[in-house]
Amino acid sequence: MSDGRDEARASVRDRLETIFRAALEAVDAGRCTREALERNDGRVRVAGRALAPGVRIIALAVGKAGAAMARAAEEVLGD
After folding, report:
1. Helix, strand, coil proportions of the chain in percent (round to 5)?
2. pLDDT tens across 9-65, in order?
3. CA-to-CA distance for 12 and 18, rounded, in angstroms?
4. 3-class state of residue 38 by DSSP
5. Dist CA 72 CA 66 (whole Å)
6. Pair 57, 63: CB distance under 8 Å
7. What does the CA dihedral 13, 21, 37, 50 come to, rounded to 10 degrees?
8. Are the beta carbons of 45 and 51 closer than 8 angstroms?
9. Cβ–Cβ under 8 Å, residues 69 and 60
10. pLDDT-based confidence at 74, cuts 50/70/90?
11. Where does residue 30 rank: exposed (0-12), middle (13-18), buried (19+ CB within 10 A)?
12. How far apart are CA 62 and CA 58, in angstroms?
C-alpha cells in the first residue's frame, strides 16, 4: 500500500524529465555556432576575437550536435 509518496515522487520525476527534455530541445547548436563565428571581408572572428589573416581553420565537431555545428561553421566560414 502506498502512502502517496511514491505517486508524488513519480509526478515530480515526470515534471523534471519534461523540463529537462524541453531544455535540450531548446538548445540549437547550429545557431550557437553561427553566433560565435563571424566572417567579414575575409576576416574571421571567433567569439568576438579576431584571427590572424590567412590563418588555417580546422573544425572538429563531435557528438550529437556535431553535424549541426559543422554545417553552421561551413555556412559562416565557407570552404
Report:
1. 55, 15, 35
2. 889 999 999 999 888 877 889 988 999 999 998 899 999 999 998 889 998 989 989
3. 10
4. strand
5. 10
6. no
7. 0
8. yes
9. no
10. very high
11. middle
12. 13
